[in-house]
Amino acid sequence: MTEHSIPDASIATGWRTSSYSGPDQGSCLEVLDGHPAGVPVRDSKNPHGPAVIVPASAWLAFVAAVRSGGFPS
After folding, report:
1. Per-residue pLDDT tens for 47-73?
2. Confidence class of residue 46 from pLDDT cuts 50, 70 and 90?
3. Domain ranges in the chain?
4. Cβ-proximal residues to 30 (8 Å cutoff; 6+ apart), any chain
5. Where is this region: Disordered (predicted)?
């Protein structure tokens, strides 16, 4: 079975946020590099909550769309 989430994401170390997220770190996503099943993503306000694992190809497409202005602000 393919793993699609991490029930308690606090057990993993190495989470990071964007350098653009600001000093208060509110309303941010955190990602974890190097997971074998894809890219885990979690809410920075709930580090003990679950994380969703996104396929690496989908994460790269999302980041490319953000960088190219593909999402209106």
Report:
1. 888 889 999 999 999 999 988 988 776
2. confident
3. 5-67
4. 15, 16, 17, 41, 42, 43, 44, 47
5. 1-27
